[in-house]
């Protein structure tokens, strides 16, 4: 499988090579290549999983540094060589202890770039950053055009090779058009020196200081020894230069000893040698590889018409210093056009383009493959040329879904098509994905509107216009996508076995294919050559049946195209029965079978000895269900590993590139297996129709076991396909903060970290979001476990990513007990995607049913649908003790020992609803929870208290009172009663407060109101009047009189103002009225205990003049007051009021009745008459 990665360019540098523009210019083919660091396979190295790839086009070289572990900043540059064309394969990258050196060859010059090595940029052994600087970060500061780093060539070379000597010299081996090899040597970059040239000839050695004399002038060497491909390899203190010439000969040069070997490659050609000698081998290729087992090997590709040939030759050295070549292997290739090939210690990898301009990648083990059968590499096919649009589908939405679906079109192709479609009037740089989608929609719709000349036309005509214009834009995107997909080269990292396919616009990563996917995707000629398959588990008969069954599936797949495929897809989307949809597709196939394809499938199916066993083997391989639970503890770092190992593992496969690689692989696996399950389901229904050939037991097994299993797997893989193509929604920071608060209420994991350094043109899918935040930690934990020394020393291996894909698929598999993916979506506020996930799995998934209802409730809460959320929370409650995710919501083990798990669950949900601010829902759920807490008095008290609180907050006074009366905890009941009194008083809802019956709570209410009355300011609160009304309402007149008398007495002591005297008079009058309403023998009250008197009006009796607490009052003897005593107090207060009305300052004077009488006789109150 191949995965696409596109990287935008950060820096562009224009270089002048010091030459003028040649007349007419030179157009050389585009090329590409790659370089991997020596320690890229070492976990603890800063260059682990790190490489550089480059591409050339005309005068431009684009270099990109990538890492699978960390995101690299400023990692892409573009170098433009004015008036030059970069030689195909003319970029050579080498590393030294301190530097990364890039050697570039154009048709007129050579150049050297010296960059710092990553180990010198980060000298610390522990690098904890999520982002790191690339080696290209400071390339703009380099003196690239310095004479010491470049050299002008008088003639254009045909091929090149380059290397760095141990002393730092940069050597360029060039193939001049007159034959031979010329080596241009630049001095070490940190030393002074001059450029030197060495011309390698079989007859002589010429060393010059500048330029070389054309060989044709000297009359030496015929052009038949023109090298069409060069390679160089340093061994010990010498360097060997391999030159594959157009006379079909391989010449090996020693940089010290001149030509050491000439081999005629036609000797390895079995037939047609005489004809080939007359044709120059201009398309021959050469690659060199060194391994500890085979030594230095050379692989030569002989471009023989209609039968390309690869020869792997081993360079052998004898004791007398002579060299020879030993033919290890000869492999013949197909008739496609070779683009590039690569040699490893065991394999030959080839890249071709077939007659339909489709990319073909194959590889072969040249040591052990005696049959000469190349292994297939399944390259992702290009997007379909035509889009099927159903009658019920909107053309615009359909085309947009295809254009902006992951794995189909790169953003660069869409942007270029948009610019052409808009006739180049605008430039789109770093446009966000959603904005680009809007721009495309606007451009196509505007084009459609401008072409309409009629004001009115039918809906069908408008639909046809939409299809016409959208298909036009789609065709433009197809052209640019095809251009960007042009293959240029292969890059293989020998240390990690990573294989990359370098294309014109992006990079494709090749991952090992799983056995069942390999069988389904293989062409018939490869299937016929298979003798056994891992799916059959060593059973040869079963293996043969499986292979024939897969051939039947391929035949079914060829029939299910276009509208039938769309109908099956639509049935899955609408949650219709897959079995019924497969039957309808089969009926359609039978009705339209004009080529007898069904008969061919039936005949092929009858050749299978045990079809049900073969179907069962395929289903077992496809089923990813496991009993293993993956909870949050699996993401924790192992405790036994050292710090540097833990840090390295925390970064392993964590970059944006690695995230895209793994998740695109998941998408491709899901796509492939969904098609396989679809075809198998149709084939199973076809097998049921065979009649007499199917026994009753087989029919029963099919209907009760195999067909339901296949239907279930089809739904699972369809779900995975949808998830891997669903984009994650961007979430504002305030929403993330609110979500973090909600998760803290539930005591779940926190919100996700933001993805750094992600291009706006590469939107993130929900599967990538999950892998980045949760899945990768589980994968790394399972790959390395508790290993420490082994993890540090064992090399990183690219096929590990295959294990990562399997692990990630297992985490996403809906039938597994783990619940990490939905929990991650909830934690990252992907509520719309979460609702779609639960909708898709609802009819057929029986795992984590309660957990799914809970997270669906969370999604409804986020969208403001509280009642739906409450319904989901209630539906999840019965599964609390059965599912791991819900068990984690029930709190600590200590609480679980004393409280029922379901009650703990309800408490968490109630806290969540309170945090969101939905008191009505809190009341509903708490009322429901009461039925679960019948025997738990503590929980009952807490629930009734919660119900009381929210009823009171909502103004439901009657319901709040009823709730507090149901509370079994006396202390909580008293607290609620106190709160009820205070709140209703503050709201001035005294009518409700007075009229409540207060059964068995009468004394408590009176005590609460009395304590409040005696504790607050008399002039701002009316608790005494409330208590008076309370007693009057209950016809307790003596109590009412006592309250008003106490109120009047306190007014006299504490409020010595005119207004205070007025209120005091009214209080005494009310007290008199109360006592007169009862029989005389009961018309008495107990005189309230007076508080400390204040010598200043309006001051608190509780504190002294200095503000200190006053001493506690001395207890006094109880005194009974009768009606006449109250009348005296009333008369006295009335007199004081009259006096104060005449002379306001007298209101503040305290004293006895006699003192007040003397004050009334004062001359300043009643002045003497003046005689006339």
Automatic annotation (TrEMBL):
Claim: Ribosomal protein is one of the keywords in the record: no
Task: Identify the residues that the record assigns to the NUP160 helical domain, covering every copy.
Answer: 539-770
What does UniProt give as GO cellular component?
nuclear pore
Q: Which UniProt keywords apply?
A: Nucleus, Transport
Molecular-function GO terms, alphabetical: structural constituent of nuclear pore
Which InterPro entries did the record assign?
Beta-prop_Nup120_160 (IPR059141), Nucleoporin_Nup160 (IPR021717), NUP160_helical (IPR056547), TPR_NUP160_M (IPR056535)
- The answer to keyword Nucleus applying to this record is yes
Which parts of this chain are annotated as the region Disordered?
1089-1108
User: Where is it localised?
Assistant: Nucleus
Locate the NUP160 middle TPR domain: which residues?
813-1077
- Return the protein name: Nucleoporin 160
Source organism of the structure: Pygocentrus nattereri
**Gene name of the encoded protein:** NUP160
